[in-house]
Design brief:
The protein is an alpha+beta fold. The chain is built from 19 helices and 36 strands. The strands form ten sheets. Strands 4, 5, 7, 8, 9, 10, 11, 12, 13, 14, 15, 16 and 17 form a 13-stranded antiparallel sheet that branches. It has a six-stranded mixed sheet with strand order 18-31-32-36-33-34. A three-stranded antiparallel sheet has the order 29-30-35. A hairpin with a 4-residue loop joins β20 and β21. It is globular. The termini are far apart.
């Protein structure tokens, strides 16, 4: 049964049939996307083991990827022929690869071996067809650093990951092997059944006749026994096509929460592929009712609350979490509860910032998990302890250092921020004196000052919800700390030294060393000029009013790089997907195209969003402009293609852009339906002429969460010429800190 028959049987394409896991598999500069085979938010994920998409060989077959950028833990190599000199992982020439989110097949063409694969949540099935006559058939299962044991037709063991974490496997074949042994160096010891150390590798010999091997396996972060239990719980048979069919249904249920009509197949492919990417992480690691936590190195009962990790919050808080609030609120509540549990388990009661399978890596800057709490609660989530959430969010910001990529306690730089309201910068060539500052990541003083201002505003929102007026007022004052590094002479956020003097001279396009980290963070000063998502109204005033604000926005999209591309990208490798100095490839830029709505020119948001989606997100191998870190960028595509976007997590409102589709139906978490109709919508007809919301005339380029939370309909009349009056009045602007009353 070919892979195509799983979906060709449908007269009409289903959502999962539009998903192209290869989209973005060749990077513009840094990390590509990976064609991940998995079920939504599930622990078991794999993708083909090769150097990159253009690689000519597969390095064995994968069994579990424990980090979305990592190689497979364990490796399976099917082999026919003489094993003399064979390594634990065999490299195969391959052809005819077919890959869907729920299914994989490939031909290892040198040996004419046919492979089929399908995953469940914590287990999977391989079917391997060997075709060579009179060649011995072998399977080799390798742990790169761990232990392997062979017992009859089963192999079990573990691989050591970072920190305190191990991943375990239990694999069995339907066919009993003729003999089994351990590959020790380049020779097979047929008398051994167990080995522990580097490249521990089991060998199973199935004789000299071509045959089909059916394999199934379970994985666990708890124990080998639990891996076996996970397999037994999920899989009762060795039927790869049946499992693939079940996986297809699961994906259709997940992706089908949003139905889009109109547009063309390319639009739908980009849309549903992006929604698939949002569904990759975080992953649920509850096994039965238990889970292993790398945050304290122990096994815990989950008490009916699934435990999630592997969430790169700096990337995902901006839109991926907001999307889950709308269509998967129960899972988002479980994610927030997992954060709170992690804080307890780590022993310091600090909210995590970058939780992974192996613990909190504390990567990037700021403490944006507070935004997921504020946004979820403000939009109606009530399934977590808000008082506890506030405590760990506050402690994470007050007691943990603000230094990027550090989990150290607060120190001198943090005290300086609390007293002066900004992180001090070093002059070029000035020696770093703070021990916890990374030689590479630097202080990132503007990124940290702006990010912490936003985080503290989120704290003020939670404090207000709890009735803590004193903290609410204190953190509301801190929310304006971005003003302390604003340079009125240039209109940019500008690094200051500890004496309060601006670092000069300064090139906002290029200065700051690799990734501009001496002053900013992965992006340059042109990007961080707009990083005040909670108070755009005040940013407009700082810049001198709406006209100057618009002029500055326009300038960003036409400002040259200021260097040749080799020199610019050697220094700014994250700053790709350029439109002028705007970078479609990095998350701090995602909200910027919507800022025209705040200054009376929504038509420019409509034009810009359509242009960016068309230019940078395409159904091809380079169709994603930069790193896709856990669904953050893909969530921008999902929202923007539907026609709206959550510019400010923590404010229950959405900015209106320009939808790609004529009709969008969102099945909300509460069972209600929110619809968007865009009459006349086409590639040319991207401008809103008029609108109604829930049957009433609508002249604002935004709407509140409350207005659609119980279902509703936004109707847009589209045209090919900008209506420069729609949504342009001063009293129609989206809300900021300055005008939050009533929402």
């Amino acid at each position: 049964m070919a892979a195509g028959s799983l979906y060709a049987r449908q007269a009409e394409k289903m959502p999962v049939d539009y998903v192209n896991p290869y989209m973005g598999n060749i990077s513009h500069l840094l990390v590509p996307t990976y064609p991940t085979i998995h079920l939504p938010n599930s622990m078991l994920r794999v993708y083909p083991e090769r150097g990159d998409y253009t690689g000519d060989v597969l390095h064995g077959l994968p069994l579990i990827v424990t980090s979305h950028r990592g190689s497979s833990a364990f490796n399976l190599s099917p082999y026919q022929g003489d094993l003399e000199g064979v390594r634990p992982v065999v490299s195969f020439s391959y052809d005819q690869e077919k890959l869907k989110p729920y299914y994989y097949e490939v031909i290892l063409d040198d040996q004419q071996t046919y492979v089929k694969y399908a995953p469940s949540h914590q287990s999977a099935v391989y079917q391997i067809d060997f075709t060579q006559s009179d060649q011995p058939v072998y399977l080799m299962l390798n742990s790169k650093n761990g232990k392997i044991r062979v017992t009859g037709n089963s192999v079990s063991g573990y691989q050591q990951l970072e920190n305190n974490t191990r991943v375990y496997i239990y694999l069995e074949s339907e066919t009993q092997p003729g003999k089994v042994g351990i590959l020790n160096g380049s020779a097979i010891d047929w008398d051994s059944r167990e080995f522990e150390g580097k490249n521990a590798c089991a060998v199973l010999n199935y004789g000299n006749q071509p045959q089909t091997l059916q394999l199934r396996y379970g994985i666990s972060f708890i124990s080998e026994e639990q891996a076996k239990e996970n397999l037994r719980r999920e899989l009762k048979e060795y039927d790869v096509m049946k499992l693939a069919s079940q996986g297809r249904d699961i994906w259709n249920n997940a992706l089908g929460k949003i139905k889009v009509e109109g547009g063309d197949d390319t639009n739908k492919t980009v849309f549903y592929t992006s929604l698939y990417r949002v569904s990759e992480r975080p992953v649920c690691i509850s096994e039965g009712n238990r889970y292993f936590s790398a945050f304290d190195g122990k096994v815990h009962e989950d008490n009916g609350k699934p435990f999630y990790t592997d969430d790169w919050i700096w990337d995902t808080y901006r839109a991926a979490h907001s999307l889950r609030v709308m269509i998967d609120a129960e899972r988002e509540t479980d994610v927030i509860n997992s954060y709170l549990t992690m804080a307890e388990q780590m022993g310091d009661d600090w909210m995590p910032t970058f939780p992974e399978i192996t613990g909190d890596s504390r990567r990037m800057n700021s403490n944006h998990a507070v935004a997921t709490v504020a946004d979820g609660y403000i939009k109606g989530l009530r399934g977590f302890d808000l008082q506890k959430a506030y405590r760990v969010c506050k402690k994470g910001i007050e007691e943990k250092t603000l230094i990027p990529w550090s989990g150290a306690p607060a120190g001198w730089l943090d005290d300086f921020y609390k007293k002066n309201g900004y992180i001090p910068a070093l002059a070029p060539g000035e020696e770093e004196t703070v021990p916890n500052v990374s030689d590479f990541e630097k202080r990132q003083p503007i990124a940290v000052t702006l990010g912490t201002s936003y985080d503290q505003w989120c704290l003020s929102r939670i404090a207000g919800a709890l009735g803590n007026k004193e903290d609410q007022e204190h953190y509301m004052k801190c929310a304006y700390n971005y003003r302390n590094v604003y340079n009125p002479e240039t209109g940019f956020f500008h690094p200051k030294d500890k004496d309060g003097k601006f670092i000069e001279p300064l090139d906002y396009s290029f200065d700051g060393g690799p990734g501009a980290r001496l002053y900013y963070g992965e992006n340059n000063g042109w990007v961080y000029r707009w990083d005040v998502p909670h108070n755009v109204a005040d940013l407009i005033e700082l810049m001198g009013g709406r006209e100057q604000f618009i002029w500055n926005l326009d300038a960003m999209f036409v400002q040259p790089l200021g260097r040749g591309k080799p020199e610019f990208y050697a220094m700014m490798p994250d700053h790709t997907g350029n439109v002028g100095q705007f970078s479609m490839a990095n998350e701090p830029c995602l909200h910027i195209p919507y800022l025209y709505n705040y200054a009376g020119q929504p038509w420019k948001t409509q034009k810009r969003i359509r242009t960016l989606l068309k230019q940078w997100f395409r159904n091809d191998l380079m169709g994603v402009p930069g790193d896709e870190d856990g669904g953050g960028m893909s969530a921008f595509v999902v929202f923007s293609s539907m026609g709206f976007y959550p510019v400010t997590p923590g404010i229950p409102a959405y900015n209106i852009g320009s939808p790609i589709f004529t009709h969008v139906t969102m099945n909300l978490s509460n069972g209600k339906i929110f619809e968007i109709e865009a009459h006349g919508c086409s590639e040319e007809n991207k401008y809103i002429q008029s609108a109604t919301l829930n049957g009433k005339e609508w002249n604002k380029p935004w709407f509140t969460h409350v207005e659609i939370a119980n279902g509703g309909k936004l109707v847009l009349i589209m045209g090919n010429t900008a209506n420069k009056t729609w949504g342009a009045d001063a009293d129609c602007v989206p809300p900021s800190v300055e005008n939050l009353s009533g929402i």
